[in-house]
Amino acid sequence: MIVQRTLQGAQVHLKVSGAIDNAAAPEFSNTLADLTQRECEVATLDLSDVPRICSAAIGTLILFFRSQTRLGRSAEIEGMHQNLRELFHTIRLDDVLHLKDA
Amino acid sequence: MRTPRRSHPSSAETAGPVSDTLVVVGEAGEAWTALEALRFVPLLRVERVARPAWPDPSNAGTPLLYLLGRCAALPDTPAITGWLDRLAVTDSPPAALVLPRTESGWCALAAHPQCCGLLSAQPTLDVTEVERVVTAARRAQVRRWRRGRAPTGRLAWNFSTAEAADGERIWLLLASVLADLRGLDEELPRLGMAFTEALTNAVEHGNLELASSLKDEDDSMGRFYAERGRRLADPRYAARRVRVELQIREEYLQIRLRNQGPGFRPSDAVRTRFDLPHRLHPYGLGLRMIEGLVDEIEIAPDGRGMTLRSDLSPRPHRRAA
Prior knowledge:
heterodimer, A: about 100 residues, 4-stranded mixed β-sheet, 3 helices, 4 strands, B: about 325 residues, 5-stranded antiparallel β-sheet, 12 helices
């Protein structure tokens, strides 16, 4: 998993590439936790190059979105690999996480 | 994401790349331990075979694990001898470690005496001969399975908690068998995701007794992983095993997982899966994923196991992953 982070003021853009499997999930969790601490008002995640994701990483995403909302900030997913899109539909998360291009 | 290949300092490594095959034969758990010690990553083939003419009848059903792969760097001699010494003084299942000839001409073959039944190993045996024997045994087993109406069979492994914690690697093991037997290329990614989720559940919520609710606070994931690491190092949890049983039939494929944790109430799992207001809980997702990826999921009545089943009969409309 490779994470590219671009900060612009209070906005952050996160581009993740590669599978977020069980081995990568802790690092992914740390990355999102760091974003929360940085007080980013707007967080945009690009997951178009993530072909596979584990449930732990999805849980991390949910926590991040929940945290952003609770803190009065925003988070959205601007791109999502087709595999993830189908998976999120299967587990009925596609309508609760904000998909920008859904 | 695959763990980066770890190299191990050796004279062969400094002499340039080698393209040799490492063959490890042994009981599954023992072989994994050896691989860890030897920093050996690639995994191409794994089989369980009947053990011919084994000296100890009580070991007759012990699975053998064959690993054939490419070795980027040969391990150093102390690592090899240390492993063999340990085998010699314990009741560990017999095993053989064969290191191939390298460009520098270095060749080592070390075999536990009891391994002769399988490999007829002699210190002078050339690695190509060992490969031939191992490959022949593997093909013979596959032929036995295929003798019936369809390639069917049943394999089982008992992994330590630490071994099972690397679900991706364990899946490689199963996938290699499945690909050989049935050519399930189309099904493998879905099965892999479902299996690794089920295995993660068995490890984290079974053997390690980590409560799902530990994940339910905004900053809780870091603590969850820290506690996970602590328990993996704690013998009280680490000594537990996860049994994985793969059953291939003409019409279906079944993977059964059993852990040695205290178990949970199956009714709780069902509630977590279907209670839609809980969709934004960061736990219970694994079960929902599994349910969407395989045709049937069954949780053991004692809450210590799970069975996944995928239909193998031709269907015009497969669900998308």
